[in-house]
Amino acid sequence: MPATIPIRHDDVLLVIDVQRGFCLGGALAIRDGDAVVPVINRVAQGFKHIIFTQDWHPAGHLSFASSHAGKQPYESVEVSYGAQTLWPDHCVQNTPCAEFHPELKIPQVELVLRKGFRREIDSYSAFMENDKRTPTGLAGYLRERGFKRLFLAGLAYDYCVRFSAVDAIGAGFSSYVIEDACRAVDLPGSVDETNGEFAETGVVRISGADLSFKH
Description:
Layout lengths: L4 E2 L4 E6 L19 H9 L5 E6 L20 E4 L2 E4 L25 E5 L22 H7 L4 E7 L1 H14 L3 E10 L6 H12 L2 E3 L4 E2 L3
Parallel strand pairs: 1-10, 2-3, 2-7, 3-6, 7-8, 8-9
Antiparallel strand pairs: 4-5
Helix pairs in contact: 3-4
């Protein structure tokens, strides 16, 4: 990989779930989650094409611990498509928790992709819901517009960023994760597993300083 990566006209910045619910005071607050916002704002200035994802759960979503009697957040249960980590109720549709972080200053966003809106399926990835069979349609959108490379930022590094970055490779795109523009939930082993999967699948880990914006 070159010392710097020139950003091209067919590159996309994919900003994952930078919402109130995952930041300070949110229902599923990620440690230091707010710190991604100024990095993303700065990096976004160099991209012509930007897409946001937005966690958008109905009340009583399958992934909520409150939907399973006797279960607590961060426990795991078996559902129809395998193991499901349980979370606090978060990013419920049309609540402040689901809103984007108010300090995001990126007016040139071209698409907001909502995910996790099917009550019985969780959705970490921007490309595929957790059943691994239900596509979001993002891959087709990107192909139709001629995009080739994705640069990912947001929350959380070891869940929604991870699944999105790996699925981007599977869909035929080049995938770069801007590490200083991400923060992790950091459950036991989750970051190490993420880094290992990135190495195995070809996801490239970079920092914002590695990007060159001379078009």
